[in-house]
């Protein structure tokens, strides 16, 4: 784990402290807080955030950071005499629908076995996952990972005016920072959970039009919200289906039970 953690420490030099990062660090630092699960949209920097918090916990409280890919590893490497901080990227561990279902079933069993160890030691665990996975019916049965939720979409954890300016200053030219922080869309920028990534992209790819770049991404967020609202009234078919039409085309649809509205269509044509 040492080499991986050293990479985190190197990457951490590019991290920009925000209101959310300060609150997360405070939460996991509490003596009576053993587990925190960070949730939020994809691309919102969840994994970078928990790695940053882990590095800080190591620096301040001398915890040993142990990256893991599942709860089984926590059981295997648990040392009651050591101050351990396990870090788990759930999205990475559950990278496909089939993997997700199998993994969550296993974690339900392992969660109960781990609970007592967390209660009786200084062991800590920070995890992160997408909101969709966190709200999955099988994930809700994993009590250990539901102890303390840190939601990046919560109003208290969104970017502040200071955060927006600090992040923009990290990646962009001074004149672009001024233009961005004094524009009419300043308040809307706080809705962009991937704002740091966008600032970096704007700078590295040398986009010329600042306003159009961010307006485009704000439009994407707005459209995605409307689609999500529309989908709340749609019943999702959780099974595979096959139908044969008169033209002898077999059409099938696999509906991902984890992510509402995501589907994969495939066609097989009978050339005869």
TrEMBL record:
It holds the Pfam family nSTAND3. InterPro entries: nSTAND3, P-loop_NTPase. This is Novel STAND NTPase 3 domain-containing protein. It comes from the Eukaryota. Residues 15-172 form the Novel STAND NTPase domain.
